[in-house]
Amino acid sequence: MTPPVLELRDVAKRYGSRRKPVWALTGVSLQVQPGETLGIVGESGSGKSTLARIAVGLEKPTAGAVLVNGDANRSHGKGASPIQMVFQDPASSLDPLFPIFDSVREPLTGDRSVSAEAGHIRVIRALDEVGLGRDMAQRLPGELSGGQKQRASIARALVALPPMIICDEAVTALDVSIRAQVLNLLRAVQAQHNTAFIFISHDLCTVSYMSDRIMVMYLGGVMEAGAREQLFATPAHPYTHSLLSAVPALQQGPGARSRLRLKGDPPSVMQVPPGCRFQTRCPLADERCRREQPALREIAPGHHAACHYAPVSAQALEAAATAAERTA
What we know:
8-stranded mixed β-sheet, alpha/beta, 3-stranded antiparallel β-sheet
């Protein structure tokens, strides 16, 4: 049986000292299979980018294990990393003094299995594949548009033929028309190479278009995870309900739901509430929620939620929110 391209087992990440710890991630587990896309959504401070940096090897977890192709002892110092990353801002992720050819070739540096000639061929092929062409190879990043820079970033991620690419808000800074082109390019790359993706975004419509499965994060923890159709049609966690209800494009047809407005602002990751981390904003929160942290449990095949009362219906949330407003 083929192992997952990426597996995280109960991963936690602490910043700061032991006396004053800041837990950016707590007990996060996931698996991504070859050719699959896992979408990750959540507000700023939810731990999405920290998870990405740990997965790609830029940071080490404080606890837990990271396995790539079933191996927990991967090396990031020899040859190309098995996981590549496309960042949000292509202008800052490309060296302004390097021609595009040199930037794209960078993941092959130090890989002795790839000769200079083979590396040259791979770079040109990657540039062709993302629609830039070899005539762009010697241009500097400042000579390219935003969309062209992001295509160059994708070519750089692709050149080492990695089993996985992580896109961390990779299309957020692009115009809508260019964004669509880049998304279609990523899907074409996946179809051709059976590449696995982790696609991180705050845009639920984009995540829906790209993903097979979706994981919802809040204050460093996983609130809900499941197949795309499952999670969008029957969300089980109050936080997921609130995210979906805030997207007008998703509130059309018979499945439309009323806007669920959350009370207050997200707590600081430096002071995560006791019990359920979402309890300070949840209309259903009670004494048990304030006292006891809910486990991420399976509520249907392949569908998990970290809520004592999951699956939660939109009607129950709307009624609780209305009652809370009247009481206030």
